[in-house]
Amino acid sequence: MPTSTSIDLDLALHVAEGAARAAGAIIRRDYYLPRNTRDKGVNDLVTATDVASEALIVGMLRAVYPAHAINGEESGNHA
To answer: Which of 8, 31, 36, 58 is most buried by its number of CB atoms within 10 A?
Structure first.
C-alpha cells in the first residue's frame, strides 16, 4: 500500500534520465570551448558549464518534484 511519501519510481527514473541527458548535452556543447574557472577549494574548480548543467538538473527535478529537497554540488541545498 503506497504511503504519503511514496513516489512513482518509473517516473523518477524517467525524470532523472532526462535531466542527465539534457545536462550531458550542455557539457558536450561546451567541451571544446575555453573554460573560465573559479576556485571552490584546493584542486576543486568550478566552470560555467558546471553551474549551467546543475541549474538545468535542479530545474527539471523541481518541475516534477517541487516539494523535494535537492542538494547540488555547486549551488548547495534547495529546500
So the answer is: 58
Model-level pTM? 0.81
CA 73 to chain centre: 9
C-alpha 79/C-alpha 65 separation (Å) is 11
- What ranges make up the beta strands (E) of the chain? 37-41, 44-47, 70-72, 76-78
Per-residue model confidence as pLDDT tens for the chain (79 residues): 445 568 899 999 999 999 999 999 999 999 999 888 888 878 788 999 999 999 999 999 999 999 999 999 888 888 7
